């Protein structure tokens, strides 16, 4: 009989016809719980929407809200070397350097004078091109300065379609990554690029550099400068037609049939290079090897 009573108790717990309780609660009690949760989740959703709205109001479409103040731009070279940063070819094998010339053709196409004249302004050189917003009034879209392909002279690919690769005097093009709001250089002194032999490790506590092998270098534009008029950069949305300035370096007498390790860096009195946090900041290194049959 005890068994029957137990069974009845369980059934009664689910639905008790006497007190009209379902799972121990009356309909109105269940209703109140349901209402409570509806109100509670509505409140949470409202809070989320409100927070998002307030946060989005503080965002500016044109400048990132947070940016590392000491951002040091990275540097990259073209033609794009593979992950190992090696440019290796044989003068006699056209197919071994033709791809480098083609890569440069493609990279420089937007710098064609005609393209630059169409989309960019002729700016006053040697000074920053300031286009600040006045308070909440956005001065957008902002203009950008022309960087004519012809500025790269012998490395422009216009007179010498192969950028010197076919005669063992290759051009390497260097650009500095964009950093919004950066004012490189100081006191009217533009930042410039220099390339030199890279010190590299050959054994424990043993270092070497290929200084004798690097030969004479020529920079385009002269002195390898990034003119001040290309700065500051205001961001992709504000400055839609921005063309990053370039520096080309031509290796006039590099030793052939040997690896030459090169490092190019930016020289600017306010861009730190290679600090502990980012060893690659402000510099780029690569290996150049030109093979000849004789
Ligand atoms: C850019 O100029 C080069 C050399 O003058 C030419 O071969 C190429 O077709 C031009 N490219 C564009 C996109 O205008
Ligand atoms: C760029 O080249 C075009 C045509 O060759 C020329 O009219 C323009 O002045 C040049 N711009 C600069 C900044 O030198
Ligand atoms: C960007 O370039 C296009 C032509 O390609 C030009 O019509 C437009 O005015 C330029 N915009 C700015 C902000 O310089
Ligand atoms: C290049 O640098 C030298 C020495 O610092 C200077 O005399 C010359 O005017 C510079 N040339 C250009 C085009 O900036
Ligand atoms: C080129 O470099 C070699 C040594 O690697 C040197 O003997 C030669 O004089 C250099 N030529 C020129 C034109 O500088």
From TrEMBL:
Family annotation (Pfam families): Na_K-ATPase
GO molecular function annotation: ATPase activator activity
Record's keyword terms, sorted: Cell membrane, Disulfide bond, Glycoprotein, Ion transport, Membrane, Potassium, Potassium transport, Signal-anchor, Sodium, Sodium transport, Sodium/potassium transport, Transmembrane, Transmembrane helix, Transport
Record's subcellular location: Cell membrane; Membrane
GO biological process: heart development; inner ear morphogenesis; intracellular potassium ion homeostasis; intracellular sodium ion homeostasis; otolith development; posterior lateral line neuromast hair cell differentiation; potassium ion import across plasma membrane; sodium ion export across plasma membrane
Record GO cellular component, one term: sodium:potassium-exchanging ATPase complex
Membrane-protein topology: Single-pass type II membrane protein
PROSITE patterns on file: ATPASE_NA_K_BETA_1, ATPASE_NA_K_BETA_2
InterPro entries: Na/K_ATPase_sub_beta, Na/K_ATPase_sub_beta_sf
Annotated transmembrane regions: 30-56
Main location: membrane
Function: This is the non-catalytic component of the active enzyme, which catalyzes the hydrolysis of ATP coupled with the exchange of Na(+) and K(+) ions across the plasma membrane.
Family: Belongs to the X(+)/potassium ATPases subunit beta family.
Protein name: Sodium/potassium-transporting ATPase subunit beta
Organism per entry: Takifugu rubripes
Gene: atp1b2b
């Amino acid at each position: 009989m005890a068994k029957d009573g137990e069974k009845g108790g369980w059934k009664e717990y689910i639905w008790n016809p006497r007190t009209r309780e379902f799972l121990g609660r009356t309909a109105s009690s269940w209703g109140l719980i349901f209402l409570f949760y509806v109100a509670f989740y509505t409140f949470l959703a409202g809070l989320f929407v409100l927070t998002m709205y307030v946060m989005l109001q503080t965002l500016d479409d044109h400048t990132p809200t947070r940016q590392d103040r000491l951002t040091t731009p990275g540097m990259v070279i073209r033609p794009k070397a593979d992950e190992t940063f090696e440019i290796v070819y044989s003068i006699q094998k056209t197919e071994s350097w033709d791809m480098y010339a083609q890569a440069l053709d493609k990279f420089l196409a937007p710098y064609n004078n005609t393209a630059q004249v169409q989309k960019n302004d002729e700016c006053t050189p040697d000074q920053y091109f300031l286009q600040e917003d006045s308070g909440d009034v956005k001065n957008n879209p902002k203009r950008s300065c022309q960087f004519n392909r012809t500025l790269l002279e012998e490395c422009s690919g216009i007179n010498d379609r192969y950028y010197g690769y076919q005669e063992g005097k290759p051009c390497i093009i260097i650009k500095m990554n964009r950093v919004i709001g950066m004012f490189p250089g100081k006191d009217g002194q533009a930042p410039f690029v220099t390339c030199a032999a890279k010190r590299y490790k050959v054994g424990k506590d043993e270092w070497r550099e290929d200084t004798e092998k690097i030969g004479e270098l020529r920079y385009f534009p002269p002195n390898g400068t990034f003119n001040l008029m290309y700065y500051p950069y205001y961001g992709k949305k504000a400055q839609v037609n921005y063309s990053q300035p370039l520096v080309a370096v031509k290796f006039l007498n590099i030793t052939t049939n040997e690896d030459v390790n090169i490092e190019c860096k930016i020289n600017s009195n306010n861009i730190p290079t290679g600090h502990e946090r980012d060893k690659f900041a402000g510099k780029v290194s690569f290996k150049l090897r030109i093979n000849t049959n004789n």
